[in-house]
Specification:
The complex is a heterodimer of chains A (391) and B (594). Chain A has 391 residues and is mainly beta. Chain A contains seven helices and 41 strands. The longest helix of chain B is centred in the C-terminal third of the chain and has 23 residues, at 413-435. The chains are: A mainly beta (391), B alpha/beta (594).
């Protein structure tokens, strides 16, 4: 198998506000979009002919992935104009598909060895995994390595083995997907017609992002695998411990204390006297002023963090301006997304381009929409829509 | 203005020459041709683009050859005028970029000596001159021939029976790409990036003899060494990566270009360049010179430097400055040229240097002619720009100007802090404008129905209006004029009616109230108004027929977000009208003729 088709057209509604301006596959984790990890895993397995099915906010993918040469692969783009399900996304690639190919979701994280393990399978095949929360996914019924049926997001899961959305297909799959919206529906139809669908179970890394706080879990997992690399300027009296990567043109000023795993991008100005603790990712062109303390968080590009801030278990998207003494402490809290309540340990989640005045305090679990503005000395909580004004 | 390439090595030359020429089409593309030597010289050339030639050309076997893509200066685009040109015997072939000023005189002399000419070009005298002096040493013959020539040139010479190429340059760009048992020659780096990233830049007056494994460069008969550069762009950067046009790709690259530029300028521990000129406290005034889009950057630069550094600035067109009787001897000057090869700008630089001015060049091309003439060079990090309509290079030029002005500003700390933070936020603000593309597309659909448009602005938005109009006219062929908003009533009002939309750039600064008045005046004449204004401005919504919003930024940075919005407006308008966006008619990327 020498070709892979990656489905990266999806929006990821439950991940709002982070997916308003970018597709889910472009969410940044440990300073790289999720899609890049997938592409790199494929390249490590010698699969360099990659078709990207793009749609929602596709310019973001073009801008980052380009022709693929930077990642050692050859990218072909096909567009799904309307987001109408994974089967329809795959159907767009019919003209460029080879005889046999892999199909993968662009917004999941799969390790290179998980793919290697699956590559030995003959089409048609699906990679499955045992998980704790099967009702989020397509639950697969398997009999002696052969799939009997897939049930999408069942209320009562009959097993905890689910489809990873990773398939090995031959061109015959296109006969089944034309009239269906999603791939599992097409597969059920195929099975009903007596065609064989093999299953291979994996214990390898397969992580999915469904809710905003999943970004933190993924970030933590991926930061453990980064290459230590100290670029830029690290002033004397700054301490850097553990697995830390610092990009070029970044300055880490005196008395700063950085404990890995931490990745800091290019052109940042950190410190003096800033504390960055595990597992934190900081984008490019970020300024962090003195006496701020950040741990287990994801900070996007161009963010400006004022002095004396406490930021824990938080996601701050690009271009936010956060003035001094912002407090985003973490604790266990109930967060509501799509009428579902989730009990999670999380700090604040800020969409892009937010502007926070001095001494704003975030209640754990607050989700602030893009381009919101918060006046000084405010307490923010719950869910704020895009462009909110808090005064 | 043209692009030239050469190859010598062990591979077939033809496919390499054609691929390289394709990458140089931004320099011109009205006719093209190649010559390959294997015993004798075989030439194939015609009017038209490289892609068309590639389809019809027969296999010209051989491992050494030269090629040319042309933008007509002497003689119309035609097969006979296309390069390469040959001598009488057909044993010497030459490709040339530049202009020979004394070619008529030389041509008469050569005809009197019995040489036969077939084309109207100035170039054709070169192979005949070389033929005249050729006695077995091709390098010597080229050197001698060039002594007779007055003008500008980059040439590559191929001769039958010689396993070498001879190159020479004066006032036109030429580089050598170093391979393993092969060498590449080209007008510009993107042509050879598929093959190598090791490059030598030739200097004016250099004559080089190149074989597959050696390079000997002589300057006035004395052998000289030229430094090898590593090019950090990848060939990938010169491709389209998903986008339909280079222009849209390059517009979308701007957040990254700004971030890279800021990273390098602001965060770098080492100064990017020693700019003692700017720090001179006796400096009372300064010149900024440029042509085309770079001139609009220069005009924005005038506002930036006057505001932040507090000195008087004159921004001038380099092409006009060359005719000014006075030169302002002894002042400082900034020249802006994307390619670093713009002939008018280089001429102005030489004139300024001649009277003792200190010159800073802002250019995108490392090792370009401008960087070699200037006292100091600030490189913009825009990467290669393929689209003829400049977008990201303009943005990078603005960043260089902001950085220069902020580094030597005489403003108070409070304002400096706030502007430094504002500068760092610009990549995200520009991204926000790009994310608003669908709204701009709607306005473009509306604009595309018209044949005339005015762009107006006041203060720092005036050059933005000029740039918006230039972008629109060059790619959509809609006649567009940029006008200072206060000047409309002194004439252009006569042209306003319901068929002439006005695009008004409204900045939230001391020009705001006056702009509102101007918009009302325009509306009263029946013209549709498209306004560019900050988000949340409800007053404008009521006044204008259509509004494109941009994120709020400090007024001094407003040209950044406004220009990006106008670039997209021009792009989508041209797309709606079905124009060949990356290669508009009659235009070429860098203008190396006066």
């Amino acid at each position: 198998m020498k070709q892979a088709i990656i489905l990266a057209a999806g929006e990821g509604q439950r991940l709002r506000p982070f997916t308003v301006a970018k597709p889910k596959a472009m969410l940044s984790v440990a300073d790289k979009p999720i899609l890049q990890y997938m592409v790199e895993s494929l390249a490590q397995n010698g699969i360099r002919n990659i078709v990207l099915v793009v749609g929602y906010r596709r310019e973001q993918i073009f801008d980052y992935m380009g022709s693929g040469e930077q990642f050692g692969v050859d990218l072909t783009y096909v567009t799904q104009e309307r987001q109408s399900g994974t089967a329809q996304a795959l159907a767009q690639a019919k003209a460029v598909a080879e005889k046999e190919f892999l199909v993968l979701p662009g917004d999941n994280l799969i390790a290179a060895d998980t793919i290697a393990h699956f590559l030995t399978m003959k089409p048609e095949a699906v990679l499955v995994k045992r998980v704790d929360n099967p009702s989020r996914y397509g639950v697969v019924t398997i009999d002696k390595g052969v799939v009997k049926g897939i049930e999408e997001k069942p209320k009562e899961a009959t097993s905890n083995v689910v489809s990873t959305g990773i398939y090995a297909f031959s061109k015959q799959i296109f006969n089944f997907i034309e009239s269906e919206l999603d791939i599992p529906d097409a597969l059920n139809k195929m099975i009903a017609q007596g065609k064989r669908l093999n299953a291979r179970q994996t214990d390898g890394t397969w992580l999915d992002v469904v809710y905003p706080w999943d970004i933190l879990t993924l970030n933590d997992a991926l930061l453990r695998q980064i290459q230590a690399n100290l670029g830029g300027t690290i002033e004397a009296d700054a301490s850097v411990r553990g697995l830390v990567s610092v990009g070029k043109d970044t300055v880490i000023r005196s008395n700063s204390y950085i404990v890995g795993p931490v990745v800091i991008g290019e052109g940042c100005d950190i410190g003096p006297s800033v504390c960055i603790l595990p597992a934190t990712s900081i984008g490019n062109n970020v300024v962090i002023s003195p006496f701020s303390d950040i741990k287990n968080s994801v900070i996007g590009n161009d963010v400006n963090i004022g002095p004396g801030c406490i930021i824990q278990d938080s996601v701050i998207d690009k271009g936010c301006i956060i003035n001094g003494h912002f407090t985003a402490c973490s604790s266990q809290t109930e967060v509501k997304v799509d009428d579902e309540h989730h009990l999670v340990n999380v700090g604040a989640m800020l969409g892009e381009g937010c502007n926070l005045g001095n001494s704003v305090v975030a209640q754990p679990g607050v989700i602030v929409g893009n381009y919101s503005q918060v006046q000084p000395l405010k307490l923010i909580s719950g869910r704020l829509p895009d462009r909110s004004l808090v005064f | 203005m043209c692009g030239i390439v050469g190859y010598i090595g062990e591979r077939q030359a033809q496919p390499i020459l054609l691929t390289s020429l394709g990458k140089l089409e931004y320099r011109g593309y009205d006719s093209c041709g190649i010559a390959v030597a294997a015993g004798n010289i075989k030439v194939h050339k015609d009017a038209g683009r490289v892609g068309e030639l590639t389809k019809v050309i027969p296999q010209l076997g051989g491992t050494v050859g030269i090629g040319h893509t042309r933008w007509a200066t002497h003689g119309e685009p035609s097969q006979v005028n296309a390069h390469p040109h040959l001598d009488c015997s057909g044993r010497i072939a030459v490709v040339h970029n530049g202009i020979i000023n004394n070619f008529l005189l030389l041509k008469q002399q050569l005809i009197a000596e019995g040489h036969n000419f077939v084309s109207e070009t100035d170039t054709e005298i070169i192979p005949h001159l070389i033929e005249k002096y050729y006695d077995g040493d091709l390098g010597k013959a080229v050197e001698t021939a060039l002594c007779d020539v007055e003008g500008s040139y980059a040439i590559i010479v191929l001769a039958a029976g010689e396993s070498k190429l001879v190159v020479a340059r004066k006032d036109s760009p030429l580089i050598i790409g170093l391979g393993d048992r092969e060498n590449f020659i080209a007008s510009d780096v993107p042509a050879i990036l598929d093959y190598t990233n090791r490059v030598i830049y030739l200097e004016d007056g250099d004559v080089g003899v190149i074989t597959l494994d050696s390079i000997k460069i002589r300057q006035e008969g004395v052998e000289v060494a030229r430094e090898e550069h590593k090019i950090l762009w990848s060939a990938e950067e010169a491709q389209k990566g998903g986008y339909e046009h280079f222009m849209l790709k390059e517009i979308h690259e701007q957040p990254k270009v700004i971030r890279n530029t800021i990273g390098e300028y602001v965060s770098a521990a080492e100064p990017v360049a020693d700019l003692a000129i700017m720090a001179d406290t006796n400096l009372e005034g300064m010149l900024i010179l440029a042509c085309g889009t770079s001139y609009h950057a220069a005009l924005v630069g005038k506002y930036i430097v006057e505001d932040l550094v507090g000195i008087l600035v004159r921004a001038e067109l380099a092409s006009e400055f060359n005719y000014y009787p006075q030169t302002l001897a002894g002042t400082g000057a900034i020249v802006i040229t994307q390619s670093g090869e713009t002939a008018d700008t280089l001429k102005a630089m030489k004139r300024l240097k001649g009277v003792g001015c200190r010159v800073i060049a802002i250019t995108n091309v490392v090792g370009s002619s401008a960087s070699r003439i200037a006292d100091h060079t600030v490189y913009t990090r825009a990467g290669p720009e393929i689209s003829v309509a400049a977008t990201k290079s303009f943005m990078a030029q603005l960043m260089a100007l902001y950085w220069l002005a902020l580094s030597y500003s005489r403003i108070d700390t409070r304002r400096l802090d706030s502007l430094t933070m504002g500068l760092r936020q610009l990549p995200s603000k520009v991204q926000q404008v790009l994310d608003n593309g669908d709204r701009i597309k709607e306005c473009a659909k509306y604009l595309s129905r018209y044949e005339n448009a005015f762009f107006t602005g006041r203060g720092i938005s005036f050059p933005v209006a000029l740039e918006g109009a230039l972008k629109l006219k060059e790619i959509s062929y809609i006649h567009a004029e940029g006008y200072a908003a206060g000047e409309l009533k002194h004439g252009p009002f006569a042209l306003l009616d319901k068929n002439t939309p006005v695009i008004a750039i409204v900045a939230q600064d001391n020009t705001y109230e006056a702009m509102l008045t101007n918009i009302k005046e325009v509306k009263a004449r029946g013209s549709p108004v498209v306004a560019l204004a900050e988000e949340g401005n409800e007053t404008i919504r009521e006044l204008a027929d259509s509004v494109i919003t941009v994120p709020p930024v400090d007024a001094i940075f407003s040209p950044v977000v406004n220009t990006v919005a106008l670039q997209l407006l021009a792009y989508y308008t041209a797309k709606q009208r079905g124009c060949p966006i990356d290669f508009p008619r009659n235009l070429a990327k860098s203008v190396t003729v006066e």
